[in-house]
Predict the structure.
Amino acid sequence: MAIKTILLVAFFASMIIVGASCRKHSVDVNGFVLGGRSVGPWLTAFAFGTSYFSAVIFVGYAGQFGWNFGIASTWIGLGNAFIGSLLPWVVLGRRTRVMTQHIGSKTMPDFFGNRYKSTKLRVAASAITFVFLVPYTASLFNGLSRLFEMAFDIDYAYCVIAMAVLTGIYVIVGGYMATAINDFIQGVIMLFGIVAVIAAVLNQNGGFMESMKALANIESDVMNGAYASFLGPDPFYLLVVVLLTSLGTWGLPQMVGKFYSIKSENSIQKGTIISTAFAIIVAGGCYFLGGFGRLFATPDQVATEGFDSIVPSMLSNLPDVLIAIVLVLVLSASMSTLSSLVLTSSSTLTLDLIAPVSKKEMTDKKKITIMRVFIAFFIIVSAVIAIVQAKSKVTFIAQLMGVSWGALAGAFLAPFLYGLYWK
């Protein structure tokens, strides 16, 4: 318990220190929302990756798709790396950086409004962002509940409140630059953490080869050894999942927004390589780990407790030091995505809805104050939704979370691509 507590306190303290040190970068709107468009390739690449991969992937998707596809679920992680990370940087990165600076847009709705000369489009895009980012934000808390209860035996609500408060502090104080630097720190933790966890989990079954043998012996309705095969028991469904989890990033405001802030076109090339490598290790590692879920959970357990119980079952017998690392890993994944989402929501609502309809010209100081208020508001609302859902099992909230990703990407991907490439 002492090891877990020390690591968590050190992690939280570093986040607050970074937020305080970045206060000087958030004196105007450009600095608070975009870091002054001076963020380097390493920070931008890690910010992109950590916004993409949250606790939902580590606990939920890795367990669910690992259970369904076995070791072939690794293809989902690789698809996320090449289709969801590499291609957006290549196709969208440079043109987004150049065009958003040229037309002076700071958010995706602002881009639509300026590019298509349409106030209605700006307002509609802002409303869609607000409506669907809040439930998406709430879903980030879900992956934490089982892991914290397993490690500390404390109520889920306290975990949610602590994470919400600490994330709110460093985002409100330091703005985008604090988020980017903390994303880098959290990304490094995720890289080392996933490698250590994979090695420890496989070692419980005698290493990689022994784990593969055990996985091959598990019965499947399709064929013998399906869960240890190259494409798994259902290749077509696997392909669908790869595309659905990869293409969405192209149209998500909090992901595309990272290209607005990068400092130069030359940084795009470096960022492309860094972001892809990060995604291969983190996403590939998560789904690879989840592929061995059938060695640690039973069909009866999954039927009664759900797919979210698989990864905690894999981790329950690890040494305390590794469990502490896993907790910090999952916290890193959740807080990095949470900070990106609430900053995107608050900036969009302030700059694209409130400022345009204001009768008086708003100063930068007032805009930043309003954004800080909305950051706190969004974090509180998402935390309340997460706690209510966990306590009362309100199903429609879970369904709304499920469509958030698709609704945002479906609404924005086409007009954004047209805006970049259509003369």
Observations:
- Residues 36-417 form a domain with the Sodium/glucose cotransporter fold (CATH 1.20.1730.10).
